[in-house]
Amino acid sequence: MHASLVSTTLPIGSDADLAWVRQQVRQAAAGLGFSLVQQTKVVTAASELARNTLVHGGGGHVQMTVLEEASRRGLRLSFVDTGPGIRDIELAMTDGYTSGGGLGLGLSGAKRLVQEFALDSRPGHGTTVTVTDWSSAVPSPRTGAP
């Protein structure tokens, strides 16, 4: 069971919102002790998923939640839109599949960049993609801090 500490909703309705989402995700990941490589991966995944939300879903929002579980801290991002949904999820999850634009990573690329990935989509009812990544920072035995 995950205990959430802080949850924030960020709108995704314009290119400016995409930049804001990337900035907020990077700040949250850095604050959780994510390594530079981890930060880059989660920001890249968030960028791809936010662009999908805007371009394919017609806009929506991302719910950004800081998680704490036992001795680890994580970041969960849920990208939600009420657009047309994904008709062929299997095809959309295929490596190399792109419908144009974005970073060319597609959903499969975003999935590879994070530790947990879930996709819920039905044609005509929108799409929710939830990704979670956990900090690899190890607490110091003396202080308990990373």
Structural class: alpha+beta
Strand content: 25-35%
The CATH C-level class name: Alpha Beta
The CATH homologous superfamily is called Histidine kinase-like ATPase, C-terminal domain
* Number of DSSP helical runs: 4
Task: Give the terminus-to-terminus CA distance.
Answer: 23 Å
Folded structure, characterized:
- A hairpin with a 2-residue loop joins strand 2 and strand 3.
- The protein has one domain (3-134): Histidine kinase-like ATPase, C-terminal domain (Heat Shock Protein 90).
- It has four helices and five strands, in the order βααββααββ.
- The model has no long low-confidence stretch (mean pLDDT 87).
- With 146 residues, the protein is of the alpha+beta class.
Secondary structure elements and their pairing?
Elements: E1 3-12, H1 15-31, H2 36-55, E2 60-69, E3 72-81, H3 89-92, H4 106-113, E4 116-121, E5 127-134
Helix pairs in contact: 1-2, 2-4
Could you give a short description of this structure?
The protein has 146 residues and is of the alpha+beta class. The protein has helices spanning 15-31, 36-55, 89-92, 106-113, and strands spanning 3-12, 60-69, 72-81, 116-121, 127-134.
